[in-house]
Amino acid sequence: MAAGDASRRNGCPVQLVRKAQRGSRRAFDALWERYAPTVQSILLTMVADDEAEDLTQEVAVSAYRSIASLKKHESFPAWLCTIARNAGRDALAARRRSREAPLEEAESEHLAAPPKGDPTAADEILSEIRKLPECHREPLMLRLLLEMSGQEIAKQTGMTEGSVRVNLCKGMHLLRQRLKHWE
Amino acid sequence: MTNNPYLWDKSGPKDSFIAKLERLLSAKRSKVKGAGRRPRLRLLRIVLPVAAAAAVVAWVCFGPRASKVESKSDAGSPQIAVEAGGQPDSEAGRSDATKKATKKALPPDNPVGETTMGQPGYDAPSPTDTEK
């Protein structure tokens, strides 16, 4: 009953999660169609467009393989977000190792990497979001890119509404300062 | 600073800066929102041209026009049936008894077709052999 209440609160289709755990590919596809944009947005807070797309597919494969081990069905969205964060961090760590550069330098170098081709205004916004502290990036990306409300962000990422509110507002304040020339 | 209704859920007065960012990100938004559906579309993009090409090839090979061309060429030419890898049977039409007699007359080490008259290994039958 408590699980049912929780799933109603965060809008997680628990039945689909159960079916996917029993091996239903169709159920997993339905879940993935619903949450893939959130996954890709989280990855976009760490890596550029092309790499985010590739990592999104890796997250799908990883989630499909390990969904049977998920204990709380209603926490599927937060669980998926954790896989996405780990995939992004692993990709950054692998890049750092391959370059053998100091951690700070490699991360800032990577996050500030310009997109392929001519950077658009959108690319500039995403690039500036990537330069913000990690805790502000995710709520801001979900709010601006997917136009989620604060409540929706909290439901999907597993953060508390209070935490989302603070990080969203502080993140936006910092972004305003960075993009002051646009106002 | 933490009380911006437009930032929280788009309620209240519009924040022009946030609205501008939302507008500039609209193209990226539609791309990201299709993230869950893209693999299927990618698959379709690969499968459809291959299926179309296969259909065209099948139509060219087995379609009604191809069979008409085949039947026209068949009508005008005589049919010659030759077994693959086989030689024309020189003894066709002869009786079994005659075939056996010819085999007996030939030496066992020299099968038909491997030697010819005048070459080493060819034993010409003498007139007496045939009389026997």
Helical content of chain A, roughly? Answer: over 70%
Q: Which series of helices and strands of chain B comes N to C? A: HHHHHHH
Shape of chain B: rod-shaped
Largest sheet of chain B: none
Number of helices of chain A: 10
**How much beta of chain B, percentage-wise?**
under 5%
Radius of gyration of chain B: 42 Å
Give an overview in words.
The complex is a heterodimer of chains A (183) and B (132). The radius of gyration of chain A is 17 Å and the shape is globular. The termini of chain A are far apart. Chain A has helices spanning 2-10, 14-21, 25-44, 49-66, 76-99, 103-111, 121-130, 134-145, 150-157, 161-178. Chain A is mainly α and 183 residues long. In chain A, helix 3 (25-44) packs across helix 8, helix 4 (49-66) packs across helix 5 (76-99) and helix 9 (150-157) crosses helix 10 (161-178). Chain A is built from ten helices and no strands. Chain B is an all-alpha fold. Chain B has helices at residues 5-9, 16-24, 26-33, 38-62, 64-76, 96-105, 127-131. In chain B, helix 4 packs parallel to helix 5 (64-76). Classes of the chains: A mainly alpha (183), B mainly alpha (132). The A-B interface holds A 32-37, 39-41, 44, 53, 56-57, 120-122, 125-126, 143-147, 149-151, 165-166, 168-170, 172-173, 175-176, 179, 182-183 and B 1-4, 7-10, 16-18, 20-22, 24-25, 27-29, 32-33, 35-37, 39.
List keywords for this structure.
heterodimer, A: 183 residues, mainly alpha, 10 helices, globular, B: 132 residues, rod-shaped, disordered C terminus
